[in-house]
Every structure is written in C-alpha cells, then in structure tokens.
Amino acid sequence: MATIPFFDPTRPPPPITIPPPIFDQSSDENIVQEFLRSRPPASSGRTIKQSAPAPSITNLRSELAQLIEEVERMKVDKEVLEKEIISQPDFKCDAQLEQLQLLQCSIESKLLRLNDPDRLKLLGKKLHGRRKKRAWLKRRNNRLKQEREEAIKNRTKLHAQIDEWQREQRKLVEKEKQAQQELDYASHFLADVHRRKAACKRYLTKFEKMLDSATLDRDMQVEIDELRRIWAAKLSDCVKEEKRLRDVLARKSAANFQRRVENEWNKTLFGDAIPKKFEHPLLGADRNREVLIEIRRDWDACLVNRDDDDDRGSAIPLGWVLPNATPSSEWAKYQIMETI
Predict the structure, then answer these.
(1) Rg of the Cα atoms in the chain
(2) Which DSSP helix (H) or strand (E) runs through 304?
(3) Which of 51, 49, 62 is nearest to 122 (CA)?
(4) How do residues 89-113 score in pLDDT, each as one tens digit?
(5) What is the rounded distance in angstroms from the CA atom of residue 305 to the CA atom of residue 282?
(6) Residue 43 Cα distances to 33, 47, 213, angstroms
C-alpha cells in the first residue's frame, strides 16, 4: 500500500535554485568585433561647425554709430595734427600718432567684424524676416482698416434704415391719429346734428299741439304755420347733414378697417406693417404683399388640372416630351434624322 507524504504547512518551502546564465564570452567578443569592422572609419579631421548667433540689429546700429563717430574723430584729429605740424616744424607728435593708430586699429576691427560674410548673411535673413513681418503687419492693418471702414459704413447704413423705419412708423402713427381724430370730429358733429334734429322734432310737436287747440286766432295760426315751415326746413337740413356724416363715417370706418386688415397681414407675413421697398423684382416676395400675391398668381397659373378648359396655363407633363413632327425653322436645325 502506497503511503501519501505528509504535508506540514508550518514548514517553510524549500529554496528555489536559479541556474546561472550561460555566457559565451568568446562569441560575444566576436560579434562586437564584427560590428566594429563593418562600420566606416571615423575621420579625425571632421569638425562640427557651430552656427553663429544671429546678430542683433540694435547692436549693429550702435556699432555703426560708434564707427561713424570714430571716423569723424579721426578726421578731426588728423586735421589738427597736420595744422600743428605745419605751424610748428619741430613739434613732437608721437603720442598723437600713436593715438591715431589705435583709433585706426579700432576702426579696422569694427569694419572687419561688420564685413563678416556669415554675419552679413544672417543679418540679411533677419532683415528679410523683419521686412516680411512689417509687410504682413501693413497688410493686416490695411485689412483691419477696411473692415473698420466697412463696419462704419454698414453701421451708418443701418442707422439710416432705422431712422427711415422710425419716420415711417411715426407717419403711420400720425396717419392713424389723424384718421381717428377725423372720426371723433365726425362723431361729435353727428351728435350735434342729432341734438338739433331732436330739438326740431320737439318744437314741431309743440306746434302741432298748439294748432290742435281751439283757442288760437287766425294771426297766431299764420305765425305758427310760418314757424312750422322754418323748423321743418331746419329738420330737413339736419336729416341731410346726418346722412352725409353717416356716409363719411361709413367710408372712414371701412377705410380704417381695410387699412388695419392690411397692416395685420403685413405684420403676419413680413413682420412689419409698412411694406418695404426693394430693388430687384424677384426679391419683393418677402418684402411686399402685392408682389407676393402677383408671384403666387403667376405660379398658380401653371398649376391647373389637365381636364380644365382654362387656357391660362397647363399642367407639367409626365414622362418624355416628344418633339413635334413638323418643327419650326428655329427648331428644325436641332432635329436628328435617323438613316436606315
């Protein structure tokens, strides 16, 4: 009977032994040597040229100013020295000559530094970049100036349109006020006519009652008849004036109602009660109600049924539209005859 080994969890596991790596030192050295032999030999005289820093235009300007100043000073010192030599032949000018030589050396060193080709090339590139930047800035400033001028022009145009719209609105309001005032005046006059008409009827009724009484003599009856005739004429005038005022009020009311309806339609269709002006006829459909109706009628003239007897338009045909067998001379040149 096989026995199972006892497992004790309290005992630590046995140490893990990692075998050491196997290095073939000779093969590694051969690989390195082969790699080094395959590379080209390095040239000992090869030097890396470092790029000189870009000269500063401000420093060059100051150097040129110093150079010009030294040249001017050298000219002045030379003239002074020549005058002293001419005036005093035994004058010792060793110190002055040495100073002039130092000044000349300084000028030559500055000229040599300024005439360096690499430095001049870098300076040319820098000046070219600066010119490009200034040209770009000039173009940008011109563009911004044009945009500002265009914005000012558009703002001025917009303000002019706003002012025109406000004037039209004020005219419309004044027109409405004037129409309402005329209606109020006509209503007031009509009320006065009603009052005078009622007074005429009242006096005529009184005169009728006076004539019905039997206590009046002949002279009184004649006078009452004359008064009746006068008040009857006044009543007739009041009736005529009332009819005229009623006709005026009816026309005014109808005109105001029609204008209010048109204003409501304009506001509904275009957002404004005043019809706008337009330059192009095809752009008036979204600005003027009459143009919109006219264009819609032109479109509706082509949208008719095939069975209608109306000659104002025809329906859009379906399928191919075959040419006429006997075309006119204008269309005959486009006809292609098939040959069998």
Answers:
(1) 58
(2) none
(3) 51
(4) 666 777 777 888 888 888 888 888 8
(5) 27
(6) 19, 9, 157
**What is the C-alpha separation between 127 and 121, in angstroms, rounded?**
10
Q: Alpha-carbon distance 182 to 171, whole Å?
A: 16
CB within 8 A of 119, min separation 6: which ones?
52, 55, 113
Residue 319: both structure tokens together: 């399928």
Whether this prediction's pTM lies above 0.85 is answered by no
* Chain position carrying tokens 């069975």: 307
The values of phi and psi at residue 319, to 5°, are: 80, -155
Amino acid at 64: L
- For residues 227 and 204, what is the distance between their CA atoms, to the nearest angstrom? 9
In the numeric block, the tokens 């209608």 are attached to: 308
CA 1/CA 309 separation, integer angstroms: 119
pLDDT tens-digit series, residues 176-201: 788 778 878 878 888 888 888 888 88
Among 193, 201, 183, 199, residue whose Cα is nearest residue 241: 193
Place of tokens 């040149």: 333
pLDDT of res. 155:
92
- Count the Cβ atoms, other than its own, within 10 Å of residue 238: 20
